[in-house]
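Hi R.,

Here's the chain you asked about this morning:
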Amino acid sequence: MMAVIFGTLALATMLACAGRARLATLVILACMLLSIGEFLWLIHNPNHGFRMPWIQVDLSDQPWSVT
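And the predicted structure, written out as tokens:
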């Protein structure tokens, strides 16, 4: 999937260099939509819904104590 995203971004760059700015803008928007879809696919867990393991926060019974 990342290769497809990279390909659309490369296509947008080539279109911009060729002077097709409007078409390049549409392709960049498609690249952004693909990127959002990839991100949501990566963080989805069928058991827990959407979660990000690198931002785990657990509630504790005991608050932090400063001594």
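The radius of gyration is 20 Å.

Let me know if you need anything else.
M.
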